[in-house]
């Protein structure tokens, strides 16, 4: 399992470098495996193709962010708590190279859309749980 994890990290780092230098559309499978220093078979043990790689990496990144937003914050369910925001900032700082590469690449539109979806879900979840005041309407009977 350690070898597989190491291979995935090499692939991710190669993806980041090539995303920064070539962009996703111009990135080739050959340049990806060469940059990662792995053989084709190792790549295919982990991903179907470069599209699958990009999708998994982006999904993992935003799944982690969504998990931070959704974690229980004590007795209140506040997705936008200062603690959650601090954790997201720390997470992005720890993954800055990846975030920077994504936001400066030809994948930027997809990334913005995913982030919008996550924030919309968080907002809807936050407001769906609000207690609605009961308004007495004697005239409605």
Structure description:
The chain has 141 residues and is mainly α. The chain has helices at residues 2-21, 29-36, 40-46, 50-70, 82-94, 96-103, 108-128. The mean pLDDT is 85. The termini are far apart. It contains seven helices and no strands. The longest helix is centred in the middle third of the chain and has 21 residues, at 50-70.
Helical residue percent band: 55-70%
Mean pLDDT: 85
State the distance separating the first and last CA atoms: 67 Å
Oligomer: single chain
- Strand percentage lies at under 5%
Largest sheet: none
Gross geometry: elongated
Radius of gyration: 20 Å
- Number of helical runs? 7
Could you spell the SSE succession in H and E letters?
HHHHHHH
Number of strands: 0
Q: Which structural class is indicated by helix and strand composition?
A: mainly alpha
What are the segments in which pLDDT stays under 50 over at least 5 consecutive residues? none
């Amino acid at each position: 399992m350690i070898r597989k994890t190491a291979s995935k990290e090499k692939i991710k780092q190669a993806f980041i470098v090539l995303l920064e230098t070539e962009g996703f559309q111009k990135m080739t499978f050959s340049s990806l495996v060469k940059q990662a220093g792995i053989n084709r078979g190792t790549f295919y043990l982990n991903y179907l193709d470069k599209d699958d790689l990009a999708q998994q990496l982006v999904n993992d990144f935003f799944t982690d962010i969504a998990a931070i937003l959704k974690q229980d914050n004590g007795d209140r369910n506040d997705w936008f708590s200062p603690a959650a925001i601090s954790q997201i900032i720390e997470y992005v700082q720890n993954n800055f190279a990846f975030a920077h590469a994504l936001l400066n690449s030809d994948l930027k539109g997809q990334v913005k859309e995913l982030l919008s979806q996550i924030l919309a879900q968080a907002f809807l979840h936050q407001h769906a749980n609000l207690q609605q005041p009961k308004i007495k309407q004697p005239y409605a009977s």
